[in-house]
Each structure stands twice: as C-alpha cells, then as structure tokens.
Amino acid sequence: MSRNTKSSHVPPHNIEAEQAVLGGILLAGCQGRHRVADALEMLVPEDFYLPGHQDMFRAICRVAGRGDPTDLVTVAEDLRNEGKFDKQVNAPYLAELAGSLMTTSTLPSHAKIVFADARRREVIEQSLALVGAAYDKSLSLGEIQEHASRLVLSTQTQSARSPETMDQLVPAFMDNLRQRRRGQIPGLSTGFPDLDEKSGGMRKAQLITLAAYTSQGKSVFALNVVINALLKGARPGVFSMEMEADEILERAIARDAMVNASAIQRGRLSPQEWERVEASAAKLRQTPLRISDLSSVTPALALERSRAWQATGGLDLVVVDYLQLLKLSKSSRTRENEVSEGSRAMKEMAKTLQVPVLMLSQVSRDGAKADRLKLWHLRESGSIENDSNQVWFIQPWDKIQEGTPRIEIEVAKNRGGACGSCFLWFNREMQAFRSVDRHGGETLDG
C-alpha cells in the first residue's frame, strides 16, 4: 500500500504505527475495549496517512458506534458493505494486521505517534498556504498576518487535544468537589469574599469578561484582583494595551502602600509616604507578576507570550486590558465580526493554557447611557456573552460624587453557577477596592 506525493519531501507519517493501531484494535476486540476507546477518542480517520487506513478506521468507528465488537469479522463485514474492499484493503490484509501483534498494551503509544504525525502534516499544509498568501499581491499585509495568527492558534489548540477518559476526569472532579465541601472556592480567589462566593472564583480554562462603560474603573478593579492573586501566591500575567507599565506600577504601589496615586505621579511624598512606597516597590519587585504593555497585540502574540510565561515561571491568571484593543484584521468586515473573533480567540487561549483569562470589555455607549448594564448590551459587541463562562458588570456609578463611592459588581452570567451582586468601596485616591463589611463600612480583606 503506497501513497504518492508531488512534493520532493514525503510528508511525516509512520505506516508501521498506523498498522499497529489498526491491528491492535482488531486484536483487542471485546477484551480490550478500554484501549480501543483511547484510540477512538484521540484519532480521527484523516489522521491516518494512507487512504486505505482511513477507510479501515472509519469502519472501526462505525462498528464501535453501534456497540459491536471491533474484531476482524465485524470490521471486515462493515468494509464490504460500504464497498471499501479492494486489492489493498481486504480480508487477508486485515488478518495480517491483527496477527502481527501479540499484545494491545502498545496501542496508546502508537496512537500518539499517528496523532503527532498528522498534526505535523497539518502544519506543513497550512504553512504552504501561508507562503502562497504571502506571494499574492492582492492580499494586504494585515490579511497575511491574520492568516499567520490563525495558523498559530489552530496549531496550539489541536496540539492540546488528548483523550479525556472517565478514569482521568472523575478523580479531578472529586478533588474539586471535596474542596467545595470544605468551603473552598473551586477557582482562583479575587480577594473579595462576596464576589468569590457569587462567582466561585476564577476557574482554570474559563473566559471571564469584566464589562463596563468607559472610565468606570475596569482597569483599576482588574489590577486589584491581580494584586490580591499575588498575595495568595498566584502567578498572573497582564496584557495592557492602553496603559504603560509605569502607570500600572504607580497604581499598584499606591494601592499597596495606601498613598495617594496623584502624589506618586507628581513625586510629592512625605517622608512617611516615601518609606511606604519604597517598601511596596521592594515587595512588588519580588513577585512573579508579568506585564506586557505593547499597544499592538494580536491573539497569536498573546498566546505565544503567555506560553513563554507559563514555561519560564508558571502562569495562573491572564488579564487582557482590553478586548476592543486587540489587533485584528479589518479586511472588509464589520467591527462586530472583529470583536467576535477576538473573544473567541481569548476563549481558545484560556482552554489551551488551562488558566482563567480575565478579559476586560468596554460597553458601547450608543445613544443614551443605560442606568443598568444587561447582558444584551454585550450583543452589540459580537459573541462575547456566548464565549464567556462568566460575565461581571461594573454597574454605572456617578464619578462626580464626593467621598468613597460604593460600587456594585454584578455576576450577570455564571455558567453552572449562581448570579447576583456584591458591593465594594472604591478609594479613588489610593486606587483600592475594599469589601463592604456587614455594617456598611470598609474592610481590608480585599
């Protein structure tokens, strides 16, 4: 059995591994159904290099789907009924595959080889298409860069695919349930107990959207969540496309040192304030916080940099400030299409990295400003609501009010959990959000 190629380089494949997978499944029959399931969950017919092997695996999938044993006789009968028997795929060849193995124990490892070679072939095909696009003068540079970004995201997502059996899933689920039974939240804490209770925290692989009108405290609130996460030992990474890193540090130090942020900005600090600022700066220097303040960030760059952070020091949370500033192609598409693409990419990034992604989103203020934000406000910005596991709103508040405003944070969507509101005090001078105690005062637990 052979396969010709027009390229001078033969695409990556391993015929022996493919034969071992097919033979192992035929040999296993009813006795090794768990190993058969592993291969069926990991592979699709197109992962096999030879067309005849693809036909055989399709037959195996059909037989298994009916609940029948994937043995030699049943698979051969299915191929015959589908008209797929020929000089290369026939009963003697099936018998040869089944008879070439003494055990099915190597089936999972051979399946991984087939899977890896299939992913390599996909990368080659997509890369050749990218080269062709680069030669096409009718395409803009932005369109070519978008093609490249999608290639990176697609490759990362496909490479993360792996079998998820009940033997793997149930223990992790029960560990999570035991934590909840002990009163622990299943996700990373925000540092605000009421919000944690409502939301369940920031769970791995979740996309959490924090939405508000402009200048309502989205960035400051997200920074408070980051600092609180640091205090819990987490390793966060921030993509700030609006603020420079120095401005983020100003706010972080003001919040931690309890010093007026404008005083830090002007450098007018009393000796006592300077001492607190120095102590906060020294403490912050020792943390694993990562900040990227590039103004032009594509989803592919965000994923690439996050993977680098994850590999070099670990990563527990990604903050994207904010969605509408992600760099996406504008090739004859509506703004809604662009924002939808960005939110889907952030969802894929959360699943690929297996960490929560806190994505800030600016709510459009077309027409009159609403007294309260609702989920339908996000529908004007594409598929944000559908892509998000959770949606948090900073409900509108009057910026000109004096004193320390009391801010409502509403969990408007919580897939698989409860919704509701909590209230926080916002100390604008110190750039600090604090929990509201049961007497309506301010606490320091945030």
Describe the SSE topology.
Layout: H1 15-28, H2 33-42, H3 51-65, H4 72-81, H5 91-99, H6 107-135, H7 141-159, H8 166-181, H9 193-199, E1 207-212, H10 218-231, E2 236-240, H11 245-257, H12 261-266, H13 271-285, E3 290-292, H14 299-313, E4 317-321, H15 335-353, E5 357-362, H16 384-387, E6 390-394, E7 406-414, E8 420-427, E9 432-435
Parallel strand pairs: 1-5, 1-6, 2-3, 2-4, 4-5
Antiparallel strand pairs: 6-7, 7-8, 8-9
Helix pairs in contact: 1-2, 1-3, 1-5, 1-6, 2-6, 3-4, 6-7, 7-14, 10-11, 11-13, 14-15
What does this structure look like?
One of its GO terms (biological process) is DNA replication, synthesis of primer. GO terms for molecular function: 5'-3' DNA helicase activity; ATP binding; DNA binding; hydrolase activity. Residues 181-440 form the SF4 helicase domain. It catalyses: ATP + H2O = ADP + phosphate + H(+). The protein is of the alpha/beta class and 446 residues long. It has helices at residues 15-28, 33-42, 51-65, 72-81, 91-99, 107-135, 141-159, 166-181, 193-199, 218-231, 245-257, 261-266, 271-285, 299-313, 335-353, 384-387; strands at residues 207-212, 236-240, 290-292, 317-321, 357-362, 390-394, 406-414, 420-427, 432-435. It folds into two domains: 15-138, DNAb Helicase, Chain A; 182-435, P-loop containing nucleotide triphosphate hydrolases (Rossmann fold, 3-Layer(aba) Sandwich). The protein contains 16 helices and nine strands. A nine-stranded mixed β-sheet has the order 3-2-4-5-1-6-7-8-9, sandwiched between helices. Strand 7 and strand 8 form a beta hairpin. It is elongated. It starts with 14 loop residues before the first helix and ends in an 11-residue tail after the last strand. The model has no long low-confidence stretch (mean pLDDT 82).
